[in-house]
Write a structure and sequence with these properties.
Blueprint (H helix, E strand, L loop, with lengths): L6 H20 L4 H14 L4 E6 L3 E8 L2 E8 L7 H15 L5 H10 L7 H18 L4 H23 L4 H21 L6 H8 L6 H12 L3 H29 L6
Helix pairs in contact: 1-2, 1-4, 2-3, 3-4, 5-6, 5-8, 6-7, 6-8, 7-8, 7-10, 9-10
Protein backbone atom coordinates (compact mmCIF):
# COMPACT_ATOMS: atom_id res chain seq x y z
CA UNK A 1 0.00 0.00 0.00
CA UNK A 2 1.43 3.38 -0.96
CA UNK A 3 1.52 6.44 1.24
CA UNK A 4 -1.38 8.00 -0.65
CA UNK A 5 -4.55 6.21 -1.64
CA UNK A 6 -8.09 7.17 -2.52
CA UNK A 7 -11.29 7.05 -0.52
CA UNK A 8 -12.25 3.65 -1.90
CA UNK A 9 -9.01 2.09 -0.61
CA UNK A 10 -9.48 3.72 2.79
CA UNK A 11 -13.01 2.37 2.96
CA UNK A 12 -11.84 -1.15 2.16
CA UNK A 13 -9.14 -0.98 4.82
CA UNK A 14 -11.65 0.40 7.34
CA UNK A 15 -13.87 -2.61 6.69
CA UNK A 16 -10.92 -4.93 7.22
CA UNK A 17 -10.04 -3.16 10.48
CA UNK A 18 -13.54 -3.50 11.88
CA UNK A 19 -13.78 -7.12 10.73
CA UNK A 20 -10.59 -7.82 12.67
CA UNK A 21 -12.01 -6.23 15.82
CA UNK A 22 -15.39 -7.87 15.35
CA UNK A 23 -13.91 -11.36 15.16
CA UNK A 24 -11.86 -10.76 18.30
CA UNK A 25 -14.77 -9.29 20.25
CA UNK A 26 -17.15 -12.06 19.24
CA UNK A 27 -14.82 -14.82 20.43
CA UNK A 28 -13.88 -13.55 23.88
CA UNK A 29 -10.75 -11.41 23.47
CA UNK A 30 -10.18 -8.76 26.12
CA UNK A 31 -10.95 -5.18 25.09
CA UNK A 32 -7.34 -3.97 25.12
CA UNK A 33 -6.35 -6.72 22.67
CA UNK A 34 -9.32 -5.92 20.41
CA UNK A 35 -8.40 -2.25 20.24
CA UNK A 36 -4.65 -2.80 19.86
CA UNK A 37 -4.86 -5.35 17.04
CA UNK A 38 -7.47 -3.34 15.15
CA UNK A 39 -5.31 -0.23 15.29
CA UNK A 40 -2.14 -2.13 14.37
CA UNK A 41 -3.55 -3.73 11.22
CA UNK A 42 -4.97 -0.41 10.03
CA UNK A 43 -1.74 1.47 10.56
CA UNK A 44 0.29 -1.35 8.99
CA UNK A 45 -1.84 -1.00 5.85
CA UNK A 46 -1.14 2.72 5.59
CA UNK A 47 -3.76 4.55 7.66
CA UNK A 48 -2.60 7.55 9.67
CA UNK A 49 -4.63 6.57 12.75
CA UNK A 50 -7.44 4.30 13.91
CA UNK A 51 -9.87 5.08 16.74
CA UNK A 52 -11.94 2.33 18.35
CA UNK A 53 -15.07 2.54 20.50
CA UNK A 54 -16.27 -0.71 22.08
CA UNK A 55 -19.50 -1.80 23.71
CA UNK A 56 -20.68 -5.21 24.87
CA UNK A 57 -22.38 -6.09 21.56
CA UNK A 58 -21.00 -3.66 18.98
CA UNK A 59 -18.00 -1.59 17.97
CA UNK A 60 -17.35 1.64 16.10
CA UNK A 61 -14.18 2.34 14.11
CA UNK A 62 -12.99 5.68 12.75
CA UNK A 63 -10.04 5.72 10.37
CA UNK A 64 -8.09 8.83 9.42
CA UNK A 65 -5.75 9.34 6.49
CA UNK A 66 -4.76 12.53 4.70
CA UNK A 67 -7.33 14.50 6.77
CA UNK A 68 -10.17 12.27 5.60
CA UNK A 69 -12.25 10.33 8.13
CA UNK A 70 -14.39 7.26 7.63
CA UNK A 71 -16.53 5.88 10.47
CA UNK A 72 -18.16 2.47 10.41
CA UNK A 73 -20.05 0.41 13.00
CA UNK A 74 -20.75 -3.30 13.37
CA UNK A 75 -22.80 -5.45 15.71
CA UNK A 76 -20.77 -8.15 17.45
CA UNK A 77 -23.11 -10.89 18.68
CA UNK A 78 -21.45 -13.36 21.01
CA UNK A 79 -20.23 -16.51 19.25
CA UNK A 80 -18.65 -18.20 22.23
CA UNK A 81 -15.14 -18.10 23.63
CA UNK A 82 -12.65 -19.49 21.13
CA UNK A 83 -8.96 -18.72 21.57
CA UNK A 84 -8.11 -20.39 18.26
CA UNK A 85 -9.83 -17.55 16.40
CA UNK A 86 -8.14 -14.94 18.59
CA UNK A 87 -4.71 -16.49 17.99
CA UNK A 88 -5.22 -16.74 14.24
CA UNK A 89 -6.34 -13.12 13.98
CA UNK A 90 -3.30 -12.06 16.00
CA UNK A 91 -1.02 -14.02 13.65
CA UNK A 92 -2.63 -12.32 10.66
CA UNK A 93 -1.95 -8.87 12.12
CA UNK A 94 1.69 -9.76 12.80
CA UNK A 95 2.09 -11.06 9.24
CA UNK A 96 0.71 -7.78 7.86
CA UNK A 97 3.09 -5.77 10.07
CA UNK A 98 6.06 -7.80 8.82
CA UNK A 99 5.05 -7.35 5.17
CA UNK A 100 4.26 -11.02 4.61
CA UNK A 101 0.63 -10.21 3.78
CA UNK A 102 -0.81 -7.27 1.87
CA UNK A 103 -4.41 -6.06 2.08
CA UNK A 104 -5.80 -8.78 -0.20
CA UNK A 105 -3.86 -11.51 1.56
CA UNK A 106 -4.97 -10.35 5.01
CA UNK A 107 -8.62 -10.20 3.98
CA UNK A 108 -8.46 -13.67 2.45
CA UNK A 109 -6.77 -15.12 5.54
CA UNK A 110 -9.34 -13.59 7.90
CA UNK A 111 -12.17 -14.98 5.80
CA UNK A 112 -10.67 -18.48 6.05
CA UNK A 113 -10.50 -18.46 9.85
CA UNK A 114 -13.05 -20.78 11.40
CA UNK A 115 -13.52 -21.59 15.10
CA UNK A 116 -11.77 -24.78 16.18
CA UNK A 117 -14.29 -27.19 17.67
CA UNK A 118 -13.18 -30.27 19.58
CA UNK A 119 -15.12 -33.49 19.25
CA UNK A 120 -18.16 -33.10 21.49
CA UNK A 121 -17.73 -36.50 23.14
CA UNK A 122 -14.12 -35.72 23.96
CA UNK A 123 -15.32 -32.53 25.63
CA UNK A 124 -17.96 -34.46 27.59
CA UNK A 125 -15.36 -36.98 28.73
CA UNK A 126 -12.85 -34.35 29.85
CA UNK A 127 -15.48 -32.25 31.65
CA UNK A 128 -16.72 -35.36 33.45
CA UNK A 129 -13.19 -36.33 34.50
CA UNK A 130 -12.28 -32.80 35.64
CA UNK A 131 -15.38 -32.38 37.82
CA UNK A 132 -14.97 -35.91 39.19
CA UNK A 133 -11.34 -35.13 40.03
CA UNK A 134 -12.46 -32.10 42.01
CA UNK A 135 -14.77 -34.36 44.00
CA UNK A 136 -11.82 -36.59 44.88
CA UNK A 137 -9.74 -33.58 45.90
CA UNK A 138 -12.61 -32.46 48.14
CA UNK A 139 -12.53 -35.79 49.99
CA UNK A 140 -15.06 -37.90 48.11
CA UNK A 141 -14.53 -41.62 47.63
CA UNK A 142 -14.59 -43.49 44.32
CA UNK A 143 -18.38 -43.82 44.43
CA UNK A 144 -18.67 -40.03 44.68
CA UNK A 145 -16.15 -39.80 41.83
CA UNK A 146 -18.40 -41.98 39.66
CA UNK A 147 -21.58 -40.08 40.54
CA UNK A 148 -19.91 -36.74 39.82
CA UNK A 149 -18.56 -38.03 36.51
CA UNK A 150 -21.99 -39.18 35.37
CA UNK A 151 -23.79 -36.03 36.56
CA UNK A 152 -21.33 -33.57 35.00
CA UNK A 153 -21.18 -35.55 31.75
CA UNK A 154 -24.96 -35.52 31.41
CA UNK A 155 -25.00 -31.83 32.28
CA UNK A 156 -22.41 -31.10 29.58
CA UNK A 157 -24.47 -32.94 26.99
CA UNK A 158 -27.49 -30.82 27.94
CA UNK A 159 -25.39 -27.65 27.73
CA UNK A 160 -24.09 -28.60 24.28
CA UNK A 161 -27.56 -29.34 22.98
CA UNK A 162 -28.93 -26.02 24.19
CA UNK A 163 -25.96 -24.14 22.74
CA UNK A 164 -26.33 -25.97 19.41
CA UNK A 165 -29.95 -24.80 19.23
CA UNK A 166 -28.92 -21.22 20.09
CA UNK A 167 -30.93 -20.90 23.30
CA UNK A 168 -30.28 -17.92 25.53
CA UNK A 169 -27.10 -18.58 27.60
CA UNK A 170 -28.93 -17.74 30.82
CA UNK A 171 -31.55 -20.41 30.10
CA UNK A 172 -28.79 -22.80 29.07
CA UNK A 173 -26.90 -22.40 32.36
CA UNK A 174 -30.08 -22.61 34.45
CA UNK A 175 -31.34 -25.82 32.83
CA UNK A 176 -27.86 -27.39 32.84
CA UNK A 177 -27.45 -26.64 36.54
CA UNK A 178 -30.90 -28.09 37.25
CA UNK A 179 -30.23 -31.34 35.38
CA UNK A 180 -26.70 -31.75 36.76
CA UNK A 181 -27.75 -31.15 40.37
CA UNK A 182 -30.75 -33.45 39.99
CA UNK A 183 -28.54 -36.32 38.85
CA UNK A 184 -25.83 -35.66 41.45
CA UNK A 185 -28.47 -35.22 44.16
CA UNK A 186 -29.50 -38.84 43.79
CA UNK A 187 -26.35 -39.70 45.73
CA UNK A 188 -27.79 -37.72 48.65
CA UNK A 189 -31.23 -39.28 48.28
CA UNK A 190 -29.89 -42.84 48.27
CA UNK A 191 -27.00 -42.05 50.65
CA UNK A 192 -24.36 -43.14 48.15
CA UNK A 193 -20.68 -42.68 48.93
CA UNK A 194 -18.98 -41.23 51.99
CA UNK A 195 -20.05 -37.58 51.48
CA UNK A 196 -22.87 -37.35 48.90
CA UNK A 197 -23.09 -33.54 48.99
CA UNK A 198 -19.60 -33.34 47.46
CA UNK A 199 -20.97 -34.75 44.21
CA UNK A 200 -23.62 -32.02 44.10
CA UNK A 201 -21.06 -29.28 44.62
CA UNK A 202 -18.40 -30.65 42.26
CA UNK A 203 -20.61 -31.56 39.31
CA UNK A 204 -21.66 -27.94 38.64
CA UNK A 205 -18.13 -26.50 38.67
CA UNK A 206 -18.15 -26.59 34.86
CA UNK A 207 -20.66 -23.73 34.97
CA UNK A 208 -18.37 -21.27 36.77
CA UNK A 209 -17.96 -18.35 34.29
CA UNK A 210 -14.25 -17.94 34.96
CA UNK A 211 -13.20 -16.53 31.59
CA UNK A 212 -15.82 -13.73 31.48
CA UNK A 213 -14.96 -12.75 35.06
CA UNK A 214 -11.24 -12.62 34.30
CA UNK A 215 -11.88 -10.53 31.19
CA UNK A 216 -14.13 -8.21 33.18
CA UNK A 217 -11.47 -7.50 35.77
CA UNK A 218 -8.80 -7.16 33.07
CA UNK A 219 -10.90 -4.65 31.14
CA UNK A 220 -11.55 -2.49 34.19
CA UNK A 221 -7.90 -2.54 35.26
CA UNK A 222 -6.79 -1.53 31.75
CA UNK A 223 -9.20 1.37 31.48
CA UNK A 224 -12.16 -0.16 29.63
CA UNK A 225 -14.51 0.29 32.55
CA UNK A 226 -17.79 0.14 30.60
CA UNK A 227 -16.80 -3.09 28.89
CA UNK A 228 -15.60 -4.52 32.19
CA UNK A 229 -18.87 -3.70 33.93
CA UNK A 230 -20.91 -5.17 31.06
CA UNK A 231 -18.94 -8.41 31.15
CA UNK A 232 -19.10 -8.56 34.94
CA UNK A 233 -22.89 -8.14 34.90
CA UNK A 234 -23.27 -10.85 32.26
CA UNK A 235 -21.03 -13.25 34.23
CA UNK A 236 -23.04 -12.46 37.38
CA UNK A 237 -26.29 -13.22 35.55
CA UNK A 238 -24.86 -16.56 34.42
CA UNK A 239 -23.95 -17.29 38.04
CA UNK A 240 -27.46 -16.31 39.16
CA UNK A 241 -29.03 -18.61 36.55
CA UNK A 242 -26.81 -21.44 37.74
CA UNK A 243 -27.83 -20.85 41.36
CA UNK A 244 -31.53 -20.82 40.45
CA UNK A 245 -31.12 -24.13 38.62
CA UNK A 246 -29.30 -25.67 41.58
CA UNK A 247 -31.92 -24.48 44.09
CA UNK A 248 -34.74 -25.70 41.84
CA UNK A 249 -33.20 -29.17 41.66
CA UNK A 250 -32.66 -29.27 45.43
CA UNK A 251 -36.30 -28.37 45.99
CA UNK A 252 -37.43 -31.04 43.55
CA UNK A 253 -35.47 -33.94 45.06
CA UNK A 254 -35.43 -32.66 48.64
CA UNK A 255 -31.66 -32.94 48.98
CA UNK A 256 -30.12 -30.05 50.91
CA UNK A 257 -26.88 -31.69 52.04
CA UNK A 258 -24.78 -29.09 50.19
CA UNK A 259 -26.41 -26.22 52.10
Amino acid sequence: MTARFDESAQRDISRLVIKTGQMLLQHGAESRLVADLSCRIGEALGLDSVEISLSASSMVVTTLTEDHCITTARRSPDRGINMHVVSEVQRTVIMVEKGILDFAGARKRLERIRPLRYNRWLVVLMIGLSCASFSRLAGGDWMIFAVTFVASSIGMIVRQEFAHRHFNPLLNFGVTAFVTTSVAGLAEVFNTGNQPFIAMASAVLMLVPGFPLINAVSDMVKGYVNMGIARWVFASLLTLSTCLGIIGAMNLIGAWGWV
